[in-house]
Design a protein that fits this description.
The complex is a heterodimer of chains A (474) and B (306). With 474 residues, chain A is an alpha+beta fold. Chain A has 15 helices and 19 strands. Chain A has 3 domains: 2-26 and 164-236 and 441-467, Periplasmic binding protein-like II (D-Maltodextrin-Binding Protein, domain 2), CATH 3.40.190.10; 47-155, Dipeptide-binding Protein, domain 1 (Alpha-Beta Complex), CATH 3.90.76.10; 238-437, Dipeptide-binding Protein, domain 3, CATH 3.10.105. Helices cover 28% and strands 24% of the residues of chain A. Helices cover 77% and strands 0% of the residues of chain B. Classes of the chains: A alpha+beta (474), B mainly alpha (306).
């Protein structure tokens, strides 16, 4: 008590910057290495890539327009906007070439393999870059989402991980404990602070130590925040896809009747209504219906414990069917698993939950040491995800077909890029239980305006967010 | 002097054991850093090449020898995920952890010693009951619960202190208080038990029989020997504070070495995990060594082998 009185300060210090609490700090601000959500979201603000996506996930020009000159050649022409690096130099075709050449030369980047199809990249002049591919790829422009970095600094092996220089709408001012950014247009400072504990994030928002937070809160804390004066909560429909994966090598789960029974044993609507935040919706495929390759015609699997039980008996299973479900130690994931465990009991399924630390859990999934597991695909933009997740050539370690699905018809549909048919076939084969697209939300103090959470959880709204002066009546 | 040399020599096998165990534990748990680094799209060739570059394709014994060689040169390597020099990462975090641990220890001593002494001197009366109940309550509260409770009271309701972070000097108070509570409970009970035992010793009875005032009997004859076991507990607990502040550092956003360790384990950042465990273990070993040496000075019988 005495210490508190000695050092105590009555109110949180007034701040002109906009402070946002993050569940996890970024690991690296070098876009050639970043894979964690926080790094990728900040890099979108610091750097500009050649290409971005519209609301239907069609690739659209950001730094450059493109033209496919033949099956193996793409020509990108840089536009006039967004071409000033934060160090004052102009972004040219040479910078684009240097960025992609340096990425291809890296041996320890998780992104290098995605660009292995590039055989050559050349600058024709200051504004034009030409990419040559090894094999035709109709999705190629959609892959060019790596932020462009200055060639001069790449040559000097500049530490982009901690001192990024890009041409995005925000520039890094400092990164020690907190990430301090400054908006180029109006010099508004934005501070990103890691606060790992969800309860502490909420307390800091209530006290005014931070001005906003987005996502990563359990639903009951979101509901609590909605009831607080001085806090506004905005929810939007999400696109990140949650599912239960099956191991198709398992003697029980390789039977389609059993997979169908497990799918019918989950009451998605009850979970959506009681366990998830607003904006969450039932899913039928990895890509949502509004995606250009989405399939709105797919019917949702209903909750039908009677039929589930009858399918299990038809498959010759002696009830109860014992299955093991693996998940991470995240409290919300464990809670959802517990609810599904209770729901499945009505269908004669005895689900054992194993909650493992992330490294062990993910390693088990990659090694195929599971019967059922729960995961979420985050930030997926292209239908190439179906190749990565379902093609027989993508069985780990060659890809993310973790359930070891092998279906010649599906492979052929993927190779033909017939995405409607691919989703329909996957819906029929059930290599997973499609669960839901998680909603997104942002909670802000009432003086924060202009910020809208994005469907994939990105923080692009920081490029426009502002603080307004509150009137007495506010 | 020979006692000190013997103790220092005794520490060397412990340090080697720590190095070996850390290395083995980190390498034998499930999870492959190459898989984590390269993601799902990499080819087998890419994985093999990176594994070779990181030396992970070598037999464990060879990897351990290389590890020892690098450690001997003070080179902890580079973080797999942060792409930063590990020595720099550790150097940034260690002072914060030490500062927090020392303040927590100071608060715990200020709380625990007076309470323990009061309890022993008023055995079975209200100060004793108050101290015992307080110690029981404090030791029963886990850090992940006590931390947010203190935040609620001192930050949100009273508005005296920042909730978390490290941006103001006052930020250290709540995490230090959280850590101190459990330690204060141990010190209270230890001091009480030790002083009660000492007060029944013959030499204390003799001092009283000589007609010394009670205050002098306690200060000169009872307190010093009663505090000897407390010194051991303080040493051990300081080591635990350095290693065990993980939860408190996470809850309060205190960027110490415990938090760095947890983050590195989650991401299978082997070199950082090894370096953190090594630094924490060595701190523990050094503090215990200093405690032993201090104990020897306070009680010469220890040095002479009695």
């Amino acid at each position: 008590m005495v210490l508190c009185m000695v050092v105590g300060c009555a109110k949180p210090p007034a701040h002109s910057e906009i402070r946002m609490a993050l569940a996890q700090a970024p690991l690296t601000l070098d876009p050639r290495y970043a894979t964690d959500a926080a790094s990728e979201r900040i890099n979108r603000l610091i750097y500009r890539p050649l290409v971005d996506f519209d609301a239907h996930s069609h690739p659209i020009p950001l730094l450059a327009n493109w033209q496919q000159t033949d099956a193996l050649h793409y020509r990108f022409t840089l536009g006039q906007s967004g071409r000033l690096f934060h160090d004052g130099t102009t972004l040219t075709a040479a910078d684009v070439v240097a960025t992609y050449v340096s990425l291809l030369a890296l041996k320890d980047s998780p992104h290098t393999a995605e660009f292995a199809n590039i055989s050559d990249v050349q600058a024709r002049n200051d504004d034009v870059v030409e990419f040559t591919l090894r094999v035709p790829d109709s999705q190629f422009p959609a892959r060019l989402i790596i932020g462009i970095m200055p060639a001069r600094l790449i040559a000097r092996h500049h530490d982009f991980a901690r001192q990024p220089i890009g041409s995005g709408s925000l520039q890094l001012m400092g990164w020690k404990r907190t990430v301090r950014l400054q908006r180029i247009s109006d010099h508004q400072q934005i501070v990103l602070e890691e606060v790992r504990d969800p309860t502490v994030r909420v307390l800091k928002l209530l006290r005014g130590e931070v001005d906003m937070l987005q996502g990563d809160l359990p639903p009951e804390l979101v509901s609590y925040l909605k009831q607080q004066n001085g806090i506004s909560v905005e929810e939007v429909a999400g696109t990140n896809f949650s599912y239960q994966g099956f191991n198709l090598q398992d003697p029980l789960l390789k039977n389609p009747l059993v997979r169908r029974a497990v799918t019918l044993a989950v009451d998605r609507n009850a979970i959506l209504q009681h366990m998830l935040i607003g904006g969450s919706r039932a899913a039928t495929a990895i890509l949502p219906p509004e995606h250009w390759a989405g399939n709105a015609a797919l019917p949702a699997y209903p909750y039908d414990p009677v039929q589930a039980r009858s399918l299990l008996l038809q498959a010759g299973i002696k009830l109860p069917l014992k299955l093991v479900y693996k998940t991470s130690t995240d409290a919300q994931r464990v809670r959802l698993a517990t609810v599904m465990q209770a729901q499945m009991r009505a269908s004669g399924i005895d689900l054992e939950i194993r909650s493992l630390d992330w490294g062990t859990f993910f390693d088990d999934i990659k090694q195929g040491h599971f019967q059922l597991y729960g995961l979420t695909w985050v930030g997926i933009k292209t239908p190439e995800i179906y190749r990565l997740a379902f093609h027989s050539a993508s069985i780990p370690p060659k890809g993310a077909n973790r359930g070891h699905l092998q279906d010649a018809e599906l492979d052929e549909l993927i190779d033909r890029a017939d995405w409607q048919a691919v989703t329909a076939r996957a819906h029929e084969l059930l290599p997973y239980v499609p669960l839901w697209y998680e909603g997104q939300f942002a909670a802000m103090r009432k003086d924060i305006v202009g910020y809208t959470p994005a469907a994939d959880g990105n923080w692009d709204g920081l490029a426009v967010v502002a603080r307004r002066k509150l009137n007495d009546k506010d | 002097m020979s006692f000190a040399i013997k103790r220092v020599w005794g520490v060397l096998p412990v340090v080697f054991g720590v190095l070996l165990l850390t290395f083995l534990l980190v390498h034998l748990v499930p999870g492959d850093p190459v898989e984590v680094m390269l993601g799902d799209s990499a080819t087998s060739g890419d994985r093999a090449q990176l594994r070779a570059e990181l030396g992970l394709d070598q037999p464990l014994a060879v990897q351990f020898c290389n590890y020892l060689k690098h450690i001997a040169h003070g080179d902890f390597g580079r973080s797999i995920h942060q792409h930063a020099d590990i020595s720099t990462l550790i150097a940034e975090r260690v002072p914060a952890t030490f500062k927090l641990a020392l303040l927590a220890l100071a608060i715990a001593l200020l709380m625990g010693l007076p309470l323990g002494i009061a309890a022993a001197l008023h055995h079975l009366h209200w100060p004793d009951r108050f101290a015992t109940l307080s110690a029981l309550t404090l030791s029963a509260m886990p850090h992940f619960w006590l931390g947010p409770l203190l935040m609620l009271v001192f930050s949100l309701w009273l508005g005296w202190l920042p909730i978390s972070g490290m941006e103001s000097k006052a930020s250290i108070v709540l995490p230090a208080l959280t850590l101190a509570c459990g330690l204060a409970a141990i010190l209270t009970r230890m001091t009480r038990a030790s002083l009660l035992e000492t007060l029944n010793e013959d030499y204390v009875r003799t001092a009283r029989a000589k007609g010394l005032p009670e205050r002098l009997v306690i200060l000169r004859h009872a307190l010093k020997p009663a505090l000897l076991p407390v010194v051991t507990v303080v040493g051990l607990q300081l080591g635990s504070l350095l290693a065990g502040a993980v939860i408190t550092e996470t809850v309060f956003g205190w960027e110490g070495i415990g938090r760095l360790l947890v983050e590195s384990i989650e991401k299978r950042d082997y070199p950082v995990t090894q370096a953190c465990v090594l630094v924490i273990s060595l701190s523990y070993v050094v503090i215990n060594l200093l405690t032993d040496l201090a104990y020897g000075r306070l009680d010469p019988r220890t040095e002479s082998g009695h």
